[in-house]
Amino acid sequence: xxxxxxxxxxxxxxLEQILAELERDDVDVDVLAARVGRAAELVEACRARIDRAxxxxxxxxxxxxxxxxx
Length: 70
Prior knowledge:
Blueprint: H1 8-23, H2 29-68
Helix pairs in contact: 1-2
């Protein structure tokens, strides 16, 4: 994660905001495609962040397992 990258919580909050906008009856059709596109970008970024965290946890657990095997 770079210093200017939004946090997972910030991305999730933005996703929730977009979903709330899309649930409104007065959503502007011209804005709809852009908001859905942004939501897709955020979902992908969140998935990538979760995958990196999972790999890091697995690496740490494997390291701990190696230390206990000696």
